[in-house]
Write a structure and sequence with these properties.
CATH superfamily of the largest domain: NAD(P)-binding Rossmann-like Domain
Oligomer: single chain
Number of helices: 14
Distance between the termini: 50 Å
Number of strands: 10
Structural class: alpha/beta
C-alpha cells in the first residue's frame, strides 16, 4: 500500500469527525456554524475552554461520544505519522522529489531498462565511465538494490511510454533494453525509436530468432549474452594475449592510453581534408586506428591520404584528455560553448 495513502486515511477520518461534531452541535442547539465548529474543536482538543452554550443531557452524551471518536481518530493519525517517519517514508519521499527534479534537467544521458545481472553490470560500467544514466525497473527487489546503490531510477514498466518519458527519453543519448523478456525488449525498442528517432538503441536478445525483429523495431545493435559469452571464451582460448590486450584497452579505466571514438560533425574544419592535412596526430597526439564511413564501410589503419568526410566515425587511440581535446576542436565554431 502507498505510504501516502496510508497516512491520508486517518486525516480523512479526523475530518469526518469534525464535520459530524459541527453538524451535531448545530442540530442540538440554535447556534451559528462557526460556534458549532468551535465547540467541536475545543472538545476534541480537550483544552477546557468555556462552552458556547450550557450542555443538557443530550449535549453531554453527544460530547462524550464525540470525544471517544476524536481520541480514536487523533491516536490513529499520530501513530500513522510516527510510523511514516520511523519507516523512512518521509525521507524516501524527499529523495524521490529530489530525484524527479534531477530527471527533469537530465540530458545527453543513457537509459538502462532492467536491473537484473546484465543491467547491473551495465550500470557499474557507466559509473566507471562517469556518464549520466537512469535505470528503469518495476521489480521491488531491483528497486531496493537501486536505492542501496544510489543510482538514479524510475520505478515502472519500461514498455510504457509514460515511464520512458519520465526517464527523459526525448533528451537521452542512448538506451539499453536489458530486460529478461524478449517481447519486452522489442516493445521497448519500438517505443524508444518512436519517441526519439535519433537515439542509439542497444537491445538484448535471448534467442537468435528475435534479432531480426529487434532490428526492424529500430535497434542499432542487438546483443545475445549467450552468443557474446561463447565468442569471448573462444577468443580467450584461441588468442589469449590479443584478447586480453583488446579487452584492457576497451574497458579499463586505469590506463592512461585508451580507445575512443567520435563522429566528424558537419562543418568541421577537417571535412574534405586528408588525415595528413588535418594534422590530428601532430596537434593532439591522437592516432586514428580506423574510420567507419556513413555507408557502413570500415577502413582499418587508413593511409594518411584518406579524405575525411562529414559523418565519418573515427576510432581513436590516445589519452582521455587528448581525445576530449580533439572532440572539442572539431566542433564547428557556432557549436562550441564559450569558455
Amino acid at each position: 500500500m502507498d505510504p501516502i495513502a496510508k497516512f491520508r486515511a486517518p486525516l480523512v477520518l479526523l475530518f469526518i469527525v469534525l464535520v459530524v461534531g459541527t453538524l451535531g452541535y448545530k442540530l442540538l442547539y440554535p447556534i451559528p456554524v462557526l460556534d458549532a465548529l468551535y465547540m467541536t474543536v475545543i472538545t476534541l482538543s480537550t483544552v477546557g475552554f468555556r462552552e458556547v452554550v450550557p450542555l443538557d443531557a443530550r449535549g453531554k452524551i453527544f460530547t462524550v461520544l464525540l470525544i471517544l471518536m476524536g481520541l480514536g481518530s487523533i491516536t490513529l493519525a499520530a501513530s500513522s505519522l510516527f510510523q511514516f517517519m520511523i519507516e523512512g517514508h518521509l525521507l524516501g519521499l524527499v529523495k524521490r522529489r529530489k530525484m524527479e527534479r534531477t530527471l527533469e534537467h537530465l540530458k545527453n544521458h543513457y537509459i538502462v531498462c532492467g536491473f537484473g545481472r546484465v543491467g547491473a553490470q551495465i550500470s557499474r560500467d557507466f559509473v566507471k565511465a562517469r556518464v549520466p544514466f537512469v535505470v528503469i525497473d518495476s521489480n521491488p527487489e531491483a528497486l531496493a538494490r537501486l536505492e542501496k546503490c544510489g543510482y538514479l531510477f524510475v520505478a515502472g514498466n519500461a514498455t510504457s511510454d509514460e515511464i520512458l518519458l519520465k526517464a527523459g527519453i526525448e533528451r537521452a543519448k542512448g538506451i539499453v533494453a536489458a530486460s529478461d523478456s524478449d517481447p519486452d525488449n522489442v516493445l521497448i525498442t519500438l517505443s524508444a525509436r518512436l519517441l526519439n528517432p535519433k537515439i542509439f538503441i542497444v537491445s538484448r536478445a535471448s534467442s537468435e530468432d528475435v534479432f531480426d525483429k529487434l532490428y526492424k523495431a529500430g535497434a542499432n545493435r542487438v546483443v545475445s549474452p549467450y552468443l557474446s559469452t561463447g565468442k569471448k571464451m573462444a577468443a580467450m582460448i584461441l588468442k589469449p594475449v590479443v584478447h586480453d590486450y583488446l579487452d584492457t584497452m576497451a574497458y579499463s579505466t586505469d590506463l592512461e592510453i585508451r580507445i575512443g571514438d567520435m563522429e566528424v560533425p558537419p562543418g568541421s574544419e577537417i571535412v574534405g581534408k586528408t588525415i595528413q592535412e588535418s594534422a590530428i596526430r601532430k596537434r593532439t597526439g591522437v592516432t586514428i586506428l580506423a574510420i567507419k564511413r556513413p555507408d557502413g564501410r570500415v577502413l582499418t589503419n587508413p593511409p594518411v591520404s584518406t579524405v575525411l568526410a562529414s559523418g565519418d566515425h573515427l576510432i581513436l587511440v590516445g589519452t582521455a584528455e587528448q581525445i576530449e581535446s580533439l572532440t572539442r576542436s572539431l566542433l564547428p565554431e557556432e557549436a562550441q560553448e564559450p569558455a
